[in-house]
Amino acid sequence: MPGTTHRELMAWPHWVLKNLYGPVGVMFGKFYAGEEEVAAAGGRIPAAPVSFLPVRAAVRRRDPRFLRATPYLASALAAAEDDGHDVFEHVPAQGKEIRTWARHLLPLAKPSTSSPGTSASPPGRGS
Predict the structure, then answer these.
(1) Structure pTM?
(2) Region (Disordered): which ranges (predicted)?
């Protein structure tokens, strides 16, 4: 998509994945090519050579702090349990219906705690 940044391209998939998998104890992050990050402890995280969405098992005592902008998701993650259910069970199969389904997950836009100057929610809501 010409003129679209990696940040813009990754916002919506990241949002949907963390809402689908957070309640079963799986965390998704996001790193953008060429952007240096600062860790919660204040240390420098080197710039990523490519944009990517890392995935890992959640650490229930620690990880809810990454979700301060979405308290409902932080609570779900803190109590997460993988009971084996299909997280895509209630997700429609068609693109337009997926967007409609995902709208109920969107909070009002708030500043991102990991990337200053950006929203914690994907484009199209509150901005």
Answers:
(1) 0.70
(2) 108-127
- By DSSP bridging, strand 37-38 and strand 26-28 are unpaired
For the beta carbon of residue 61, count every other beta carbon within 10 angstroms: 8
- The model's pLDDT over 49-78, given as tens digits with 9 standing for 90+, comes to 999 999 999 988 888 888 888 888 889 888
pLDDT band at 21 (very low <50, low <70, confident <90, very high): very high
Provide CB contacts within 8 A for 12, sequence distance 6+: 102, 122, 123
Beta-carbon contacts of 52 under 8 Å, excluding residues fewer than 6 positions away, are 30, 31
Please tell me the predicted confidence (pLDDT) of residue 107.
56
SS3 sequence, the chain?
A: CCCCCHHHHHHHHHHHHHHHHHHHCEEECCECECCCEECCCCCEECCECCCECCEEECCCCCHHHHHCCCHHHHHHHHCCCCCCCCCCCCCCCCHHHHHHHHHHHCCCCCECCCCCCCECCCCCCCC
